[in-house]
Design goal:
The protein is mainly alpha-helical and 264 residues long. Strand 1 and strand 2 form a beta hairpin. Among the domains are: 3-116; 192-261, Helix Hairpins. It has helices at residues 2-62, 70-111, 120-162, 192-203, 211-225, 236-248, 251-261, and strands at 166-167, 170-171. Strands 1-2 form a two-stranded antiparallel sheet. Helix 1 runs antiparallel to helix 2 (70-111) and helix 4 (192-203) crosses helix 6. It has 7 helices and 2 strands; from the N terminus they run αααββαααα. Residues 198-264 form the J domain. This is Chaperone protein DnaJ.
């Protein structure tokens, strides 16, 4: 009976996860499309000035009489990126809340693990707390990285002035060359970028995925390939790879990748 209940909660969670992921993907695509149209309209207005304003105003004022509501179309193009982004945030909130609720109950009946909360709303409140904690952590991390970068640049500039223009790229007359010292676009990360992208591919997420998308992907794959739930085939090695990828995509490495390569 416990196995039946566990599989029931598991498959309910999977269905909800895929359905909400579908809507998140659709809304994300639409937001990008309408954001591009909005940028085009703003650019035309900026470069065209008053001439474009009057050209645009004519169809906006009289086009609806011919059955084409131009005013509402333009308004929708301008507003949808903001409304769509809000909808994506709420869908991710629902996805986390529902999947955590059903997956934990599946673990309770199938694997004997404890349930963290009693109601789905408790998972939602935990998600809100984690979002706020993540926002504060990222702000502190950005400030720390900026202070560290400023300190290194100051020390390098001081040494450059002190030793007459010699830097890691060689001797140069004049001021300090940040690119030669490793502060430009070229980054030597010891293979970090390749390892990060390999781990992201292992979990089936993009490199700009946030920690919650990564965690959901990990939980989905861990349940799918857990050795205890796949008695007919050996999934131990694959399960270990999934765990290793999840461990590598830690909060620290996510922040480091986004800082180094401008993702997110």
């Amino acid at each position: 009976m416990d196995k039946i209940r566990g599989n029931f909660y598991k498959y309910i969670g999977i269905v909800i996860d895929y359905v909400l992921e579908f809507f998140i993907t659709v809304f994300s695509l639409l937001v990008e499309v309408f954001r591009s149209f909005r940028s085009l309209l703003i650019s035309l207005l900026f470069f065209g000035g008053c001439l474009f304003f009057f050209i645009l105003w004519i169809p906006l004022s009289f086009g609806s009489r011919d059955g084409i509501p131009w005013f509402w179309i333009v308004l929708f193009v301008l507003v949808f990126p903001v409304a769509g982004s809000f909808a994506i945030t709420r869908l991710k909130y629902l996805q986390y809340m529902a999947t955590e609720y059903f997956y934990e109950r599946a673990d309770y009946y199938l694997l004997g693990k404890n349930v963290t909360y009693d109601t789905m709303g408790d998972y939602g409140r935990r998600y809100a707390r984690k979002i706020e904690e993540e926002r504060k952590r990222q702000a502190e991390e950005r400030q720390r990285l900026e202070e560290e970068m400023f300190r290194r640049q100051f020390e390098a500039f001081f040494n450059d002035a002190r030793f007459g223009g010699y830097n890691q790229g060689g001797y140069r007359q004049g001021g300090y060359d940040y690119g030669s010292a490793g502060y430009g676009n070229t980054t030597f990360d010891g293979g970090f970028k390749e390892k990060y992208e390999t781990a992201a591919r292992r979990l089936g997420v993009s490199t700009d995925a946030d920690k919650y998308e990564i965690r959901l992907a990990y939980k989905k794959l861990a349940k799918k390939y857990h050795p205890d739930l796949n008695l007919g085939e050996d999934t131990t090695r694959l399960f270990q790879e999934i765990n290793a990828a999840n461990e590598f995509l830690s909060d620290e490495n996510i922040a480091r990748y986004k800082q180094m390569y401008g993702q997110g």
